[in-house]
């Protein structure tokens, strides 16, 4: 079976033809888009599973043969859409749409089986990681740094087992750092050089031999969760390039050490400036920069990434107070053809977790929109969103949600800001940002704007904003108050 040439056409051309067919069947656009996405998944599966070891198993061979047959049928269907005129499509559109849906269902059935196969390879990698952790001086450990050797560019592959993402990483020599280099750069990780601390470990300011100043994040205790976050960070940040995303300069994976090296941000995290003396132009710059970075992650990075843990400590500020999104340890990819996906665990921080994720284990790009609203309210008000978030009933609404909603209803929204606007234009921009935050915090994720819409609303002051509804979690609280 030749996965490069399938039925006389290469995979890229096949996908482009299916896209063209999707345009012809306009009333069934979503089904056709899902088919395009799943054809791409099938192509990746064929490439990854078609190894001599895998092909020894008859069940895998049979499954791949079935997938190949489905792709051949998809190719023939696309050709039939291309090789006929408009009148023909006008009368046969419904029949073609039904045929596309049938192919979609057959692909769905096959893809439900293949995660089990992927799980086998993932389990093998997990076993190796655990073996290294249990035996620090084993031969496997001495071979582990070999993951960072390779060609001139980074090669990252992500496999999914349940909710665990494992990235096998091969990077250029220029990406590698050794432990002695980083110890020298940070004065042996001295307390004087420590500039931050989180769940993963401590962050130190360091200076390399070429006088480049860097931020060095060192894992404090190697557990499977930290190792997976380490791999996740490398997997995503080596592929991202945006002015609002922090740059990863390199990594060290030596023995039990897991260390990441980033560009240094002189002003640290947004956490230190929330309640500080920032004028509105600076706050506005931070808000717009975060929005643009999220929009890039969701739509323009090519990876379809949900950050999953937006909060002030994960927003870094450069020397000009421009924001950069950091900490991708809990980030995940999403399927753009699906509105929401299920997760078996809640990730995020108090006051920033969307209700659908907290209550129904569903996540989407709208989960990040909810987190963005929390940042937006904190930057505008200079107050912590989660300081009173865990109330009598354990609700995660956040005190700011409640306050901004009651100020909105009372017509006194400007009192929410912790600074006086310089002129009328600043006043209107502040009110608009608070209004936008209320849209981002709505209970139903379908009613929240996308980050693309948020960027547009922030940059175009003449765009009319819809009327907001009651913020998430407050319906339940108000119902309890009246019961």
Your description of this structure?
48% of the residues lie in helices and 13% in strands. By secondary structure, the protein is of the alpha+beta class. It folds into three domains: 5-134, no CATH class; 142-263, 2-Layer Sandwich (Phosphorylase Kinase, domain 1); 270-482, Orthogonal Bundle (Transferase(Phosphotransferase), domain 1). The strands form six sheets. A five-stranded antiparallel beta sheet has the order 5-6-7-9-8, sandwiched between helices. A two-stranded antiparallel ribbon has the order 1-2. The protein has a two-stranded antiparallel ribbon with strand order 3-4. A hairpin with a 2-residue loop joins strand 3 (155-161) and strand 4 (164-170). Residues 1-9, 115-170 and 387-396 have low confidence and may be disordered. InterPro entries: Adaptor_Cbl_N_dom_sf, Kinase-like_dom_sf, MCAfunc, MLKL-like_MCAfunc, Prot_kinase_dom, Protein_kinase_ATP_BS, Ser/Thr_kinase_AS.
């Amino acid at each position: 079976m030749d996965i490069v040439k399938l039925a006389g056409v290469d995979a890229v051309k096949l996908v482009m033809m299916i896209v063209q067919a999707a345009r012809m069947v306009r009333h069934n656009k979503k089904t056709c888009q899902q088919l395009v996405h799943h054809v791409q998944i099938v192509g990746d599966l064929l490439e990854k599973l078609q190894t001599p070891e895998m092909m020894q198993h008859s069940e895998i061979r049979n499954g791949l043969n079935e997938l190949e047959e489905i792709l051949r049928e998809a190719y023939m269907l696309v050709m039939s859409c291309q090789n006929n005129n408009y009148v023909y499509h006008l009368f046969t559109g419904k029949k073609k749409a039904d045929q596309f849906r049938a192919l979609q269902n057959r692909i769905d059935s096959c893809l439900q089986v293949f995660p089990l196969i992927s799980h086998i390879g993932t389990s093998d990698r997990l076993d190796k990681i655990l073996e290294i952790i249990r035996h620090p001086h084993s031969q496997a450990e001495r071979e582990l740094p070999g993951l960072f050797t390779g060609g001139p560019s980074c090669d990252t592959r992500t496999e999914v087992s349940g909710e665990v993402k494992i990235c096998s990483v091969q990077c250029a020599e220029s990406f590698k750092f050794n432990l002695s280099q980083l110890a020298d750069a940070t004065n042996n990780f001295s307390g004087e050089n420590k500039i931050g601390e989180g769940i993963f470990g401590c962050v130190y300011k360091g200076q390399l031999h070429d006088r480049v100043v860097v931020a060095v994040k060192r894992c404090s205790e190697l557990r499977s969760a930290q190792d997976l976050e380490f791999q996740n960070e490398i997997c995503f940040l080596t592929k991202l390039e945006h002015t609002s995303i922090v740059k990863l300069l390199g990594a060290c994976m030596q023995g039990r050490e897991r260390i990441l090296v980033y560009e240094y941000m002189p002003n640290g995290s947004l956490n230190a400036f929330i309640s500080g003396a920032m004028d509105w132009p600076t706050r506005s710059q931070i808000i717009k920069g975060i929005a643009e970075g999220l929009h890039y992650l969701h739509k323009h990075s090519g990876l379809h990434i949900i950050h999953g843990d937006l909060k002030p400590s994960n927003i870094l500020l450069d020397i000009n107070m421009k924001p950069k999104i950091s900490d991708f340890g809990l980030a995940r990819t999403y399927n753009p053809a699906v509105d929401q996906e299920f997760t078996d665990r809640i990730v995020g921080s108090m006051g920033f977790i969307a209700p659908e994720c907290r209550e129904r284990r569903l996540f989407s790009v709208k989960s990040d929109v909810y987190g963005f609203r929390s940042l937006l309210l904190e930057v505008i008000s200079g107050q912590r969103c989660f300081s009173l978030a865990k109330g009598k009933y354990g609700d995660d609404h956040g005190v700011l949600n409640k306050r901004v909603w009651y100020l909105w209803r009372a017509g006194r929204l400007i009192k929410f800001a912790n600074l006086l606007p310089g002129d009328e234009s600043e006043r209107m921009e502040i009110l608009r940002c608070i209004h936008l935050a209320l849209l981002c915090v709505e209970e139903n994720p379908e009613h929240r704007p996308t980050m693309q819409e948020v960027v547009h609303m922030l940059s175009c002051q003449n765009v009319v904003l819809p009327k907001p509804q009651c913020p998430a979690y407050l319906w339940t609280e108000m119902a309890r108050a009246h019961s």
